[in-house]
Amino acid sequence: xTLAIATPVIAVCDNHGITIRTLNWxxxxxxxxxxxxxTHTRLDTASRATVQRDPRRFAAWRQDDTAxxxxxxxxxxxxxxxxxxxxxxxxxxxxxxxxxxxxxxxxSRGAVHTQAxxxxxxxxxxxxxxxxxxxxxxxxxxxxxxxxxxxxxxKNNLRGLCVQRWDDSGLQTVESVxxxxxxxxxxxxxxxxxxxxxxxxxxxxxxxxxxxxxxYLSTISADARGNSLNQTDAMGNQQSWRYDISSHVxxxxxxxxxxxxxxxxxxxxxxxxxxxxxxxxxxxVTTTYRYEPETQRLSAMSALRADSxxxxxxxxxxxxxxxxxxxxxxxxxxCYFQNQQTxxxxxxxxxxxxxxxxxxxxxxxxxxxxxxxxxxAPIPTDSNQTVGYARSYRYDDSGNLLSLSHQGAAxxxxxxxxSDVSNRSRLQNDAxxxxxxxxxxxxxxxxxxxxxxxxxxxxxxxxxxxxxxxxTVNLLDRNxxxxxxxxxxxxxxxxxxxxxxxxxxxxADSNLWTVDEVRYLPGLELRRHWxxxxxxxxxxxxxxxxxxxxxxxxxxxxxxxxxxWKTGKPDSIDNDQARWQIxxxxxxxxxxxxxQTISREEYYPFGGTAVWAxxxxxxxxxxxxxxxxxERDGTGLYYYGYRYYAPxxxxxxxxxxxxxxxxxxxxxxxxxxxxxxxxxxGLAPGGNSAQPSxxxxxxxxxxxxxxxxxxxxxxxxxxxxxxxARVVPQNSGWAYLQNVWERWNPLNNNPSSSTNxxxxxxxxxxxxxxxxxxxxxxxxxxxxxxxxxxxxxAAAA
Length: 797
Fold this sequence. Notes:
By secondary structure, this protein is mostly beta strands. Helices cover 11% and strands 42% of the residues.
């Protein structure tokens, strides 16, 4: 249930109609008095926000006018943000060149970034320097009309485009682009070392010396409407899609490199409102959906195997606002264990701000490892031995978790220590002696968590790059020498992870290491396991004892992973095993090609395994996609794209790289409403339906292709928009389209959005587009309006 429906929100505006205060009321139970929460904004004479305070900082300011605000900004006369100071993410100073490009910046860690542009204003190279370290060129771009120009540039539609990007993952090359803008042929070369931080020289030979010889080629073909038809990954596996007249996917297939064919999706039935009514998977499972007629919210979902065995039968209940208040799985038989009765009912209660307060459900009777349950417990011998649980959550006025109380197989209270001047927090110790002043000791100046607490007495150090990407997790420290410590290492391209390597010292006397590595390519993961010996600067690697190629795709609602072993296949698992995973943020059902259950997992609302059942330990060791359909690393962290999520902390490990895109609390997870909202990329939450509507899915399917063309320019576009700049980098209109998706998506239900009507484009936005696009501005505005209208229709549907 929810303590209030349609709680009033009062916006106080100045004489220009700009909101300067927002008044919210909240109560945590029906008998408690309501609390007034004020969010405050101060504007300059040009109506730009210079100071913002959340309810906690506003209350502190009312008591002491020297109290720091959450955010303060200083802008130039042209509106560019020269300095911003955030209590969560630290300060940053940016200098712009005469063309309004961000040319130099420094942040509170002392990390300096510079960017160089060519005569057309296109990003050419970027350097970075951590305090006390040397400058390095962290990325370079090459265009078809500069350097070693491609003689077939016109034929391949590459004129003027960035076709090569050297960055922290290696080299990405675009070889051909369709008229629609879709990349149809691209390659990837990785760095020689997964531990390298490259300093890219100017000469081709010098850059090539840092790269592996192996080139991974991925190709795709698309129809005239931009729909993907066939995709061939770097190992020669092919995926193909078929569409109906409305561009809805109607079937999907995979052909492995050895010629073996598999049907992934046999068909989908769509409603007139572009909602999926029935989905027939390639493993013989038929999933049906029902929706509330008035709201089109999902009301029921049922998954039926070919032999008429019902695998899932879920009923959803909502309050009048749309918050999920109950889920009933009718396939769960009533269980009697330890004088308790459990079934498939889960119920949820919210406060007046729609933050989750209470959750009830069932859990394995063996879940007694709280409160630091980083990884799931071993598979229980009897999955029917379940007991009921109840969890309660309490928050401060800024939305920071104060405490989590759990009653169930184990009873505990997990308390948090919260800073008085920011939204940073850490686990309280068992003695409860940590003070607000102790919180900042486990964060760096940019708000990145430095120690990942995994037990009451142990924590894993985290190392962050100059760009605030998680670079290394120190799993086992050995005398402060990172090169001799067990660790997990990550490499990124344009903020997205491309490589993960886990290194465990097996024999110290011979310096023998066991290495597990994952490389991420379009539609493919390459997973290898081997051992290597390090002697001085010489690395001697043995042959991989296991090499696994995982073909990844989404077929309707199900995520599909096909496991193809080149070497080291386990005896009890068939090669080319296909796995259909039907998952959301609270359930994960994994099925094989016959529709038989491989594993079943139920989660607590903010993550963590409540119920865990599987047919074998070996098979589940290859399950890496878990809570919210995201990959869980061996650290216990979930990788979302832009950030890592710690489910036992119920919050992110770093401040939001999108800054205040989702409010002034840069660590809060999905506004503390993890059942109604989801976060796809680690930036901001969106609505949570069992599957997206067709119009939303169609729009979102185009965004990655568009971003691939200009992903090196996304950060520049975001900086230009945040600084109200009138110049946006060449060809970054599509990057702006991605920004529109993030900021104006009506499914986000974001009260801080710049417009209350998603299908409108405000005058400031029109001005930016006009100054950038010139004569093409009308067409660009039309594209944006069409996209926004589709998102608006998706929300209405």
